[in-house]
Amino acid sequence: MTAFDAIVIGTGTAGAYLANRLGRSGMKVAAIERKLFGGTCLNVGCTPTKTLVASAYAAHVARRGGEYGVAIGGPVTVDMKRVKARKDAVVAPRRAAMEAWLRDTENCTVYHDHARFVSPREVRVGREVLTAERIFLDVGGRALVPPMPGLDRVNYLTNVSMLEMDILPPHLLVVGGSYIGLEFAQMYRRFGSEVTVIEMAPRLISREDEDVSAAILDILQKEGIRVRLSAKCIAVDKRGEEITASLDCEGGPPEVSGSHLMLCAGRKPNTDDLGLEQAGVMTDKRGYIVVDDQLRTNVPGIWALGDCNGRGAFTHTAYNDFEIVAANILDNDPRSVEDRIVAYALYIDPPLGRAGLTEAEVRKAGRPALIGTRPMTAVARAVEKGETQGFMKILVDATSRQILGAVILGTGGDEAIHCILDVMYTKAPYTVLQRAVNIHPTVSELIPTMLGELKPL
Ligand SMILES: Cc1cc2nc3c(=O)[nH]c(=O)nc-3n(C[C@H](O)[C@H](O)[C@H](O)COP(=O)(O)OP(=O)(O)OC[C@H]3O[C@@H](n4cnc5c(N)ncnc54)[C@H](O)[C@@H]3O)c2cc1C
């Protein structure tokens, strides 16, 4: 039995930074990773997908070259082997650097194996048992494989296997019209595949407002992506070389066929093979570890960070979890997950940047509010770039005048949303942002204008 001051299970965003910080603070730390150092974001999430999105954007702009007066001199083709090689060249060195950084961290011992609880203070790693008074879980999640009839008879892809593709699927069926599915759908359409998105709900990304879902549907359909909504009973089968998905859909024939099937039907936490029952750590019905606002589990001395605690599903929320735990344990600085404002982006093109409450959430709360909107056709920078799809929208509390939420679906939306998000963190009235003199020509410069035209919700 080897004794440590702290054990960190999983080297995703939260775990890696926490192990480093704890080691540097003088604690003797064990950092355990069963697979890829750096976890989901670096290896099979944000980094590879955004690298591929960049290749897809290049193909898209090349095809539109004529609109800008640029002659390509032939059809635009995509070399999938080079696309994948570019992605690998971005990911592999970063993974190696992450592993080296952890191994070089003072007071930190790295284990490359699966970890499982033996008791609330003991963890088995391979043939060794490690013990510590403090154990931090950062085990992340994986693609959910829904109980869909016929899945045992067909080959299907997830975000992990999809990222190993170096061929162009003739017709990709994407099950799931949410964040991950839509990024892959548009990317592969731009690479040259036929793409059909199959979504169970009556609209795409149903967590967003209806106008956002409708605008995204329009953007994707204009690129030739087929979208089948309200597919309530999806069943798949193999027919010759094709995969057939039977749907119970509004509109269109009851079946669609494709060459490849990708599942983007949600995520599942990696908590089912961690021996949590040996430690007495509580999970919810979906397997997420239950934590309080400082990310402590029900067992004293055990914390859960990142996607596995169900309090966030993003790299920035996982990193913030690390900051919260480190601040509370090492800095005597009582930080809480409650201080975090919901914010994220969807990296289709144009991207969606989101902060705070949606319009539907504000309406549901019944608070007096003001709303402002502006189409991207009325944003000079978007017009100049020839990228005028989308719109922006902001919601303000009519009494406190604080900003409640915003969405920017449009070119630069993933960046411009931050000037709104940052003002939300200050809790300042919206007039502070309305009077700011932003740079011309940018997407951000129209945010003060939009705030000057607020109407009652
Ligand atoms: C396709 C895709 C695209 C995404 N794009 C974005 C994006 O653009 N922006 C964004 O913010 N987020 C994005 N995300 C989400 C983001 O990747 C995750 O929120 C983030 O990686 C979560 O980090 P984490 O610290 O919770 O753990 P993870 O990064 O999931 O790491 C957990 C680690 O724990 C290890 N592990 C699990 N169980 C054990 C065990 N028992 N023993 C030892 N090790 C174990 C795993 O091998 C893994 O390395 C994307 C996700 C996907 C799938």
Description:
33% of the residues lie in helices and 24% in strands. The chain is of the alpha/beta class. The strands form 5 sheets. Strands 1, 2, 3, 4, 5, 6 and 16 form a 7-stranded mixed β-sheet that branches. The chain has a 6-stranded antiparallel β-sheet with strand order 17-18-21-20-19-22, with helices on both faces. Helix 1 links the parallel strand 1 and strand 2. Helix 1 packs parallel to helix 9, helix 3 runs antiparallel to helix 4 and helix 3 crosses helix 6. The N and C termini lie far apart (62 Å). Flavin-adenine dinucleotide binds next to helix 1, strand 2, helix 2, helix 3 and helix 9.
Task: Supply the helix-strand structural class.
Answer: alpha/beta
Question: How many E-type strands?
Answer: 22
In whole angstroms, the N-to-C terminal distance is 62 Å
Largest sheet: 7 strands, mixed
Radius of gyration: 24 Å
Rounded mean pLDDT is 97
Shape call: globular
The amount of beta strand, in percent, is 15-25%
Distinct compounds present: flavin-adenine dinucleotide
Number of helices: 14
Unreliable stretches covering 5 or more consecutive residues: none
Helix content: 25-40%
Set down the secondary structure blueprint.
Blueprint: E1 2-9, H1 13-24, E2 29-33, H2 39-44, H3 46-63, H4 80-104, E3 108-112, E4 115-119, E5 122-125, E6 128-137, E7 141-143, H5 159-162, E8 171-175, H6 179-191, E9 194-198, H7 210-222, E10 226-228, E11 235-239, E12 242-246, E13 255-258, E14 260-263, E15 267-269, H8 276-279, E16 302-304, H9 315-330, E17 343-346, E18 352-356, H10 359-365, E19 369-375, H11 380-385, E20 391-397, E21 403-409, H12 413-426, H13 430-434, H14 446-451, E22 455-456
Parallel strand pairs: 1-2, 1-6, 2-3, 6-16, 8-9, 8-14, 9-10
Antiparallel strand pairs: 4-5, 5-6, 7-15, 11-12, 12-13, 17-18, 18-21, 19-20, 19-22, 20-21
The site of flavin-adenine dinucleotide has 37 residues, from helix 1, strand 2, helix 2, helix 3 and helix 9.
